Amino acid sequence: MLITSESTATRKLARVSGVMHKGGNMTDWQEFCEAIPWFLNHDAKVKVSEESSQLTFSINIENQLPLLTQLLKRATVTGITIENVNYNLLAWDSLDSHRLGWLSLAPNAETADIEIIPLHKELLASFGGVIERFNESDDTWLLNTNEFLTAKKASNDATFIEDYLWAFEDEGIEIPIVLENFYCVLREANGNTTLCHKKTGQILFFATDHSFDHITPVQGCPEYTLYDIAGSENFITWVESIAQQWLNKIA
After folding, report:
1. Could you give the CA distance from residue 186 to residue 180 in angstroms, rounded to a whole number?
2. What is the distance of C-alpha 92 from the center of its chain?
C-alpha cells in the first residue's frame, strides 16, 4: 500500500472524469479516493483509464473457483496507474445502494520464482490480488487486511512464527508444521496471517490476537497460535468462502 496522508493529489484526482454510478455523482475512482484518502502520496503521479471490459479467466480457474470468477466478472473494472505501477479498480453496487470494491494489482504472469500452488499461480495471470478495499462490510474475512493473494505476500513463508516459539514451548510442544512449507495468502494489519501449504493447498490461520468464532486451534496447539478455519481447509474452499461473503453484499 502507498502510505501516507490525505493530500492535494487525492483532492485533484477526485475530479478525474469517468463513468458515473448511482445517481451520477462520482466515479469509482472518486469513491475510492474519498473512502481511502490516506492511500496516495501528495505528489503521486496517477493515470485513470476509462472503464474496461470484465476480467477473463482460464477454463480451469472458472471450474475450480466459480464463485471468485463470478464475483470478479460482475465488477466494473477501471485501469489505474500509480507511479508507473498498474492496478485494476474493481467495483460493485452494494445491496445498500452504494459502491464498494477492491484495488487489485494488474495480472502478473511472472511468478516463476515464487513457490506457490499451481492454481494460485494460474490465478495471478488473470488477477493480481487485492491491496486495498473501499466501503467494505465489517463482516468479511478481508476486513483490516493488507494484501490478499498477491505475489508479493506469497513470497513470504511462515518462518515468522519462530518468533512465537515460546508459546508452543510453554505448552511443552513443538511447532507442528514445517514453516518453510507454507506461504502467506492474507495478512491482517495486526499480523494475523492466513497460510497456504505450497504443495497441498492446506489452509491454516496464525493469530496472536482475535475475536473470531469460525476458527479452532490446530490439534495440540495453544490458543493464539495456529488455527483451522471452519469450512475452509484448503485454498479453493477458503478463496470461495471469501468470494461468497462479497457476493452476498452486492446487488
Report:
1. 16
2. 16
